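As promised in the previous annual report, we have extended the structural survey to additional targets. Below is the entry for Protein BCCIP homolog.
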Amino acid sequence: MKKRAVDSKQPVESDSSSDDESSGEEQDYKGGEQIQVDFEGRIPVDSDFHGIKQLLQQLFLKAHVNLSDLTELLIKQNYIGSVVKQCDDDPESDDEDDMNVDDDVYGITSVVNLTEKKSMQCVSQLRDLLKDMSKKHGDDRTVSKVTEILEDDSHSVGLLINERFINIPPQVSVPLLMNLKKELEKAKSRKMPFDFQHFVLICKLFKMDHNKKKSKKNKNKDPEPEVLWSNAEEEVFQEVADCSFEFCVKDDSDSALGGKWHESDSEMTPWRKVIIFPASKLDDAINKVTTMLQQ
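The corresponding structure token record, generated without further manual editing, is:
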């Protein structure tokens, strides 16, 4: 079993978003229960295909992107990026024991080269998606920037993928991002095509729908945020962005936060925010994330 130097022990809500099965007792669910789970980063392998694809599906929803090809690309470039899995409690376990370990994929952090790999169908579709959505939802400056970085072949652009299930806390992102940074530096030192000038990060947001609030209100509950970031650490990347744009994906999604609404929740609408930032700002962003999560 190949492992990254990424370990994190975090409390996780017991209603895992990775479980798609419904129960007849859903109406009795109260939410908020937590269990303590050890996570670790591992090198993506072929058996992770369906888990990775499921994570990509919750990000791209109904977008016209070949997610099977994109998943295969992420697995093939296994020298870059990590998948998040539950730790094996037995330190003496070896490859023969892996079949007895929970092998679910809980998250993935990686990068796809949108410039060098543009001949691949899935990457070409990603490029078209970014250009089309920026024209529909971005201002003139944003459209110009997106076109500039994608059409200049001497300008390498990486799609930063930072996906996990909603009940995995943001603290796990710090070792994953730091490990990714080290892998990118190592790849660059070997003259591999991971010397980026810009990164693109697609974030999942949820905005309060004031017209469709739940009828039951809890007066003792703190006010709910107007905007909720599915991955809290991604809000920090706004601070280093050259430009960004966002759009509603309500018609593409019928899920809440990848889990279930609690009875007292206000209804929120899913959005996507695309952030474009200089690769030189990655260190700064990771440092800001680390500081934020230590508070």
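Residues 189 and 195 are 9 Å apart (CA to CA). The chain has one domain: 3-14+32-294. These points will be discussed at the next consortium meeting with the crystallography subgroup.
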